Amino acid sequence: MDSFKGQGGIQMLLTAEQEAQHIVSSARNMKMARLKQAKDEAEKEVALYRSQMEAEYQNKISESTGSSGSTVKKLEDETDRKIKALTKSTSMVSKEIVDILMKHITSVKI
Description:
Blueprint: H1 2-106
């Protein structure tokens, strides 16, 4: 009878050990699933953040490019106005300058 109790005790221990292994295995699988889920969530957050930063960067580039294009246009307009003003003022005094030069060239001091 004692051997039967011993056999039953051993069988209970084996059953308890298998049950414990199942519990540990299940907990390990749940932990791995949670780690994978956390990794996926983190990757999504990183991708979202990266896309936001890229969009902000592209906006800044387009703003600076747009403003430099308008700056170039303003400079070209200002240069054209100055050239026209200089051409106009030169044409107004060119006759006088030619007369002064001719007077100095043709007059000889003795």
